[in-house]
Amino acid sequence: MDLILEGLWNLAEAGAQLLLQPFYYISIIIVLLMYRRQVVLERRLFHVRLHSWGLQTWRTVLSGLLAGLAVSVVFVFLGMNLTMEGLLCLWVVTFVLMLFGIRYLCLAYSVALLGMIQFVLNWFPGFTGSGFGGDVIRIVREMDIPALLCLVGLLHLAEGLLVRWQGASFAGPLFFEGKRGRLIGGYQMQTLWPVPLFLLVPAQTTGGVLPWTPFFGGDAWQGGFSLMALPIMLGFSEMTVTLLPKGKARITSGWLLGYGAVITVLALLAAWWSPLMPVAAIAAFVFHDSLIWLSRYGEQQRSPVFVHPQGGLKVLAVLPGSPAEELGIRTGETIMKVNGVPVPTKEDLHAALRINPAFCKLEVRNLAGESKFLQRAIYAGDHHQLGAILAPDELAPAAALSLLHISMCIRDRTRSPV
After folding, report:
1. 380: exposed, middle or buried (C-beta count within 10 Å: 0-12, 13-18, 19+)?
2. Which is nearest to 288 in space by CA: 345, 354, 236?
3. Predicted confidence (pLDDT) per residue in 204-217, tens digit
4. pTM (predicted TM-score)
């Protein structure tokens, strides 16, 4: 009972420590501004709002909180020998790497680099340095790299699940400039999750000792334990013109889960047999870059989806609560006829809808290539295209991004200590 009370007290202290830190609030503000920018872009391109930035912010904050609690529960049994000096060192390395590219603002890269530096330093045990340099060398030598790599793996697993559950719902339609200068439709899938972690760390206390020995830390747990609050930002950014958002989210989630599982296993093996530590560190770096390459390669090899086929209009998105949604029109489907009239252009669509201003009949080709016939009354105030956002034509607004930018765009998976 005393141990349970001490654990609850440590949790309360860690929660207070998190609430007193500005970094967690800053991450929430960043998320809010990101979604606000998405809504502004939607209004500029489509003159309507497809998402609610307030609702999106609360969903991501709540999801990030649940993900952080889940990872923290796992680390109750894994443990982590992390000091404030080590955490500061991790912050510095992360932000230095960020100067070389925003994609390096990721815990995987900083931990991998520190792991390789520690491996090299261990080859020269007599080299201790002096002054500030000596302190840095000591801090790097004392860092528990396998535990940090395990944290990287578990965070990727958590991100993979979040992308699977929420990635497609936060996708925003955009217009892009294709390889031949033709405008095509696509999606930007971008979100951030503020994740508060409560890591169990060894500490010299007058309280009780854990009845179990966590996997990482060894004899350091004999002196007691404490909880350390560590705010983390999970995030991913993808752009796709060749897949529906759900399909892209499913593929990305699968790669993330695979990466997380491999790095977690390698980290656990490295803690059991230390020569595997540099292997795990290199794998964390190389495999992460491989995920970026795979995403880019897949987009280059597939054909764009959101272009108008011969004789029809491709649906890029459907407004929530609109007549198109009520009719059952889905993203990626093609409107072929309205009121019996073929609609190869948007002008033809508008003219066909005016044939009967009180009622409409549609022939829509679904994703399987089969035709379905829909009908609905039209009411005053309904969207002029029934709430269907169509793929761009030559009269569409300026493209948001070029396809060349997409092919060069890298997946920003930010697992950085805020």
Report:
1. exposed
2. 236
3. 776 667 788 888 88
4. 0.88
What 3-state class would DSSP assign to 195?
strand
Task: Say which DSSP state 306 is in.
Answer: B
Which residues have C-beta within 8 Å of that of residue 394, sequence separation ≥ 6?
Answer: 183
Check: CB of residue 360 under 8 Å from CB of residue 337. Answer: no
Query: CA angle 233-188-31, nearest 5°?
Result: 30
CB 299 within 8 A of CB 240: yes
Tell me, what's the pLDDT at 374? 94
Task: Evaluate whether 56 touches 170 at the Cβ level (below 8 Å).
Answer: yes
How confident is the model over 283-318, as pLDDT tens digits?
Answer: 999 999 898 888 888 888 888 999 999 899 999 999
Question: Minimal CA–CA distance to 114: which of 88, 77, 76?
Answer: 88
Choose among 118, 71, 121: nearest CA to 90: 118
Helix, strand or coil for residue 367? coil
Residues 325-337 have pLDDT tens digits of 999 999 999 999 9
The set of long-range contacts for 12-15, using a CB threshold of 8 Å and a minimum separation of 24, is 13/227, 14/198, 14/227, 14/228, 14/229, 15/198, 15/229
Other CB atoms within 10 Å distance of the CB of residue 117? 18
Q: Which residues contact 408 (CB under 8 A, 6 or more apart)?
A: 296
Q: How many residues does the chain have?
A: 418
Query: C-alpha angle 119/123/129, rounded to 5°?
Result: 95
Residue 405 has pLDDT above 50, yes or no: no
pLDDT per residue as tens digits for the range 372-401: 999 999 888 888 889 899 998 766 555 555
